């Protein structure tokens, strides 16, 4: 039985669709819902970089906060009461999502996908495909 759903979001169109699907699934099942965003660059890493720009990093943090807040508001407007928002760090987004899900006892993951194929997928990779291939639990991919 699905009791804890983790929905990966990054503010993209694909993840907005994943948010909608996760809210609907959590509503139908009465499950707790957590939205997660993976921060690829931490303040500590950025500070040690030649490209350090605190304004850019502050803007990115603010955007992440807005994206997570919007997802939580959508869930609460749908009547969900067990809603959380978190960020986690990792250079490999899929691995960070899976690691967070495993360590925190999630039994379902929802993620979006742009549906890249061919050379674009080969060059850019696919977070969704990696999550599906390596997750410890069922994964819903929304396109």
Please sum up the structure shown:
The chain is α/β, with parallel strands linked by helices.
Describe the structure.
- The protein is α/β, with parallel strands linked by helices and 143 residues long.
- It has one domain: HUPs (Rossmann fold), CATH 3.40.50.620.
- The protein has helices at 13-29, 43-47, 54-77, 93-103, 118-124, 127-134; strands at 4-8, 32-39, 83-89, 108-112, 139-142.
- A five-stranded parallel beta sheet has the order 3-2-1-4-5, with helices on both faces.
- Helix 1 (13-29) links the parallel strand 1 and strand 2 (32-39).
- The chain is globular.
- The two termini are 24 Å apart.
- Mean pLDDT is 88; it is low at 119-124.
Tally of individual domains: 1
Count of DSSP helices? 6
Which bin fits the share of residues in helices? 40-55%
Order of helices and strands: EHEHHEHEHHE
Low-pLDDT ranges: 119-124
The value of Rg in angstroms is 15 Å
Strand order of the largest sheet: 3-2-1-4-5
Task: Tell how many strands the DSSP assignment holds.
Answer: 5
* SS-based class: alpha/beta
CATH C-level label: Alpha Beta
Tell me what the CATH architecture is.
Answer: 3-Layer(aba) Sandwich
Mean pLDDT: 88
Largest sheet, in brief, is: 5 strands, parallel
Fill in the CATH topology: Rossmann fold
Distance between the termini: 24 Å
Task: Please report which band the strand proportion falls in: under 5%, 5-15%, 15-25%, 25-35%, 35-45% or over 45%.
Answer: 15-25%
């Amino acid at each position: 039985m699905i009791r804890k759903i983790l929905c990966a979001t990054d503010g993209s169109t694909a993840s907005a669709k994943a948010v909608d699907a996760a809210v609907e699934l959590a509503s139908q099942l009465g499950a707790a819902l957590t939205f997660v965003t993976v921060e690829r660059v931490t303040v500590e890493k950025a500070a040690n970089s030649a490209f350090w720009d605190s304004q850019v990093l502050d803007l990115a943090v603010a955007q992440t906060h807005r994206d997570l807040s919007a997802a939580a508001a959508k869930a609460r407007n749908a009547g969900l009461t067990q809603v959380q928002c978190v960020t986690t760090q990792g250079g490999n987004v899929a691995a960070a999502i899976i690691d967070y899900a495993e360590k925190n006892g999630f039994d379902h993951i929802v993620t979006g996908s742009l549906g890249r194929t061919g050379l674009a997928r080969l060059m850019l990779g696919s977070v969704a495909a990696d999550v599906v291939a390596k997750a410890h639990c069922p994964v819903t991919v929304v396109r």
